[in-house]
Amino acid sequence: MNNSPNLLNLSIAQTLDFAAPILFAALGGVMSENAGVVNIALEGIMRFSAFFGVWGAFVSKSPWIGLLWGIAIGIVLGALHAYITVKWAGDQIVSGVAINVMSMGIITYLLEFVFKTTGYSPPAPYFGSNNMRVHFTFLKNIPVLGAFSNLTIIVWLALISTAVVHFVLYHTVLGLRIRSVGENPHAAETLGVNVFKIKWLAVIWGSIFAAMGGMALSLGTLSSFTNAMPMGKGFIGLAAMIFGKWTPVGALIASLLFASAQIVQLLLQSSASGIAKQIPLGFYLALPYLLTIGALIGVVGRAIPPAADGIPYKKEG
Amino acid sequence: MKNVLKGIVFGHRERNWWLTFVVPIVSIIIALLVGAIFIWSTGRSPILAYKLMFGASGLFPGPYFKNHFAEMLLASSMYISTGLAFAIAAKGGLFSIGAEGQFLVGGIVAAYFGYAKPFANMPKPIHLTIIFIMVMLAGGIWGAIAGWLKAKNGIHEVITTIMLNWIAIYLIEDWLVIGPMKANVQTGVSGTPYVSETAKLPIILHGTRLNISIIIIIVVAYLTWFMLYRTTFGFEIRAMGYTLIYNMEAPKAAGVKVERRVVQTMFISGAVAALGGAFIILGILFQFPPVFEGGYGFDGIAVSLIGQNEPLGVFLAGMLIGGLRTGATAVQLAHIPKTFPSIIEGLIVAFIALQELVRYLILKLVNANRKKHLEKPATGGAANE
Asked: Is residue A114 within 8 Å of A55, Cβ to Cβ?
């Protein structure tokens, strides 16, 4: 970024950077909840993967290995959530809370155990460094498109994943099965769909997305793990999923909206003058959340989840 | 008669009602075992860790028991308040994660009415009464917003309570505490001013910090039970919770004003969570500090789940979590971070979620024993009740 890119491009690029973790979390929710399994463990999975990603990158000196570590822990936690909620028809909320609470204790413990530090890990190689970014130099000076000239691979993966999830859910047989399991598992079962298998698949796939979201924070935006991660991003992702009415494209729009509200807040804060300067910081920080509620009341209206969302499925007889 | 009593007391009339108690207890034991394996696998001594943790938890007699016991009850009163808040909403089929924000709202209101001039010179009982009324009103309104948005606009309470949590956090910590409610710089106090003497909760155990918060929360827990199981209002709330997956059609058909009940339930839930915020400000911190270590609201969810969303269960679970958190500082002597109890807490909740498995295993065990002793085929149901 030597040629002083214009403010618009920079803001858009920053918005995308902010949106990536939220979008990944939201996609994780979309996958899992379309198959009827509520996953409020997104926050906890993000915390686990943010740490394991940095750990892997630190040990191997490669962010790609870190990415694999993070995905692996995402699969493990997804499998745990599926084992509790699908295999044993346990309460999905309770299972999610369990993973979230455990993430607080286990990761703080491991942070101290592995890196001998409290608060944050030492820096590890990450996707945000200049040689790891995806460069499209020819786009650099074009308004709007210029924002896409220097993004991290994680942001691109988030955007591509949105398209993939949209395609899978609405244009493939597998997607039809996933949605049918989320709407009416008993009917799906009578049509020969293996409900349990579909649920397992969707939960684990969703958890991988959540894991990617965690690493978007620790390997994408920052190059280390801080103990405050993921700072509620998983819950905001959950909100983005509901805001986007359980669809991938809706999740993308919601994530961009939430992220841009944060960028607007940063811009306003730095460039404010006159009356705007008088408005306390707290209002700017609360703005994205107020916007969400406002938008839900005025624009989006009733958000209708998949019909069998959150109901444990038990075979009859 | 005996069965009816059982049904009333435990709220369960089905077979194997005793599992309601056994499942959490077994979950706690398994969680402690898994936690021990975790400590052992990182090369530290689980026996030493548990000895230190439970020794300082105030749950078992030992050195300095009086102090630990007082600290445990002090912490418990806050966990019980947020736990009850979650349980009340959960009984009505509402999944409220808003206790965190309501707790903060309660705290900041308690701080304000604690130091604000016209109140600061009143006699203690009147002053405290005013504070608690304002706290419960403010917390209740913060909760009722989510209920109202659900009733009127059909917005899921999960999303609104999450949003309201963040709004509360930012408005309080980045506006009120550093702005209008900031203490005078010359006094050298950061955060809000300290509350007046008349706003401090009376101590009930000499030589410790234990105050009347624990008595207040016992009364509130009893009132919650009474409301849920002895009033029409509570019956209607529970009816809503039972029929949640059928869109509450049955209570609607029976004439329950579901929308109004949703708002009222969220109001009560918010008011109870806000009590916890008042406890910490008026009994422990005496001001709203610039950096507030929260988390009571989220732990309340775990407390409620361990207590099976029943007032008595929430009370006992709150004591357990309060005890573990009190013992946490001692765990550091075994070179284990003081967040260790949250691993145990998470594991307990995980096994609560796995209660179908735990039930299945217990019943298998029990039935196998019966078979052996009575040589009679057992008829106990398995996982598919």
From this structure: yes
